[in-house]
Amino acid sequence: MPRSRKYKCIICGRIFPEGQGIVIKYGKTLLTFHSNRCASKFLRLLLERVPPEELEKYIKRIINEQEEKLRSLEEIKKKKI
Ligand SMILES: [Zn+2]
Asked: How many whole angstroms from 7 Cα to the centroid of ligand 1?
C-alpha cells in the first residue's frame, strides 16, 4: 500500500495527509494549509504585505472574471425557468 504524503500547515503547524487541506504550488514554493481558516489567514497576511499598486490590477481582473461568470450563471438560470 503506498504511503500517502503528509504536509505541514505553514500557519499553525498541523500535519495533514494528502487530499485534505489546501496545497498550492506557487513558483518554487509549496503553500500548505490544513484548513480554509489557515488559508484565509495567509491571504490576509499576504494582502497586508504586498503593496496595492502591485496586486490590485490582478485582483480587479479576477473580480471582473468572477462577475462575468456569475452573470452567465444567472442567464442560464433564467433560461431554465
Ligand atoms: Zn493550519
From this structure: 10
Cβ–Cβ under 8 Å, residues 22 and 42: no
Nearest-angstrom CA–CA distance, 53 and 49: 12
State the distance from the centre of ligand 1 to the C-alpha of 12, rounded, in angstroms: 4
| Ligand 1 geometric centre to CA of 24 (Å) | 14
- The amino acid present at 74, given as its one-letter code, is E
Q: Which residue has the cell 504536509?
A: 7
| pLDDT tens digits along 25-70 | 999 999 999 999 999 999 999 999 999 999 999 999 999 999 999 9
d(CA 80, CA 70): 16
- Nine-digit cell at 33? 494549509
How far does the centroid of ligand 1 lie from the alpha carbon of residue 73, in Å?
33
